Amino acid sequence: MNVSVIVPTLNEAENIGKLIPAIHKALQDNYTIVIVDDNSTDGTQDIVRVLSETYPVKLIARPGKLGLASAVIDGMKSQRAEAYIVMDADFSHPPELLSGIRANLETHDLVVASRHVKGGGVSGWPLKRRIISGVAIIMARPLTRVKDTTTGFFAVRGACLENVTLTPVGFKIGLECFVKARWNSYIEIPFIFTDRRHGSSKLRGGEFLDYLKHLLRLYIYVIKNRRAFHQSR
Fold this sequence. Notes:
The protein is of the alpha/beta class. It is about 40% helix and about 20% strand. It has one domain (about 5-230): Spore Coat Polysaccharide Biosynthesis Protein SpsA, Chain A, CATH 3.90.550. The chain has helices at about 15-25, 45-50, 70-80, 100-105, 125-140, 175-180, 205-225, 225-230; strands at about 5-10, 30-35, 55-60, 85, 110-115, 120-125, 155, 185-190, 190-195. The strands form two sheets. A seven-stranded mixed sheet has the order 3-2-1-4-7-5-8, with helices on both faces. A two-stranded parallel ribbon has the order 6-9.
């Protein structure tokens, strides 16, 4: 199956030069990496351009910090593929899982790398962060059968997104796809989330408020589309 790996970046020079070869090692062929960069100032784009001479990499250079969710959407729009895999650039999403994710796409519409199935988890999180994450997941549970509603590491077949309008608020593009994409079968595969190896987090203080706004939009969407929603779930 042909896949596009969508990777949003902002000042990821310390990671991207290692990540692209790691993605290639996992997938080998029949893939494209789409780097969507929000005007990095640390040379990220230069590194991607150099690596694009060796690996199947496409760079989308955006004029400013426009956000992770919109970066993923722009990446999907730019590259037609049988399926899209979304992952972070900071190695919190292990690239060695990519081959298994693509294999599962042969039999499932949606593949979710999950911290909340047997074998999954997080490493090194303080109690406060675990509580906030747990509350965020519980708040979204009525919207989807997916257990890890806030993961950012997932894959979806392109056909499931046809005629679907994605309008996320904030950065939880995964949840947007879990609710709106027209998938039938899905699987959650375990992974251990670890904080970034290099660079600094791009999260800001208002992200949880954005998440609440996003949840409100999705609940309104589900209520308006209740019949179609239940038929597809």
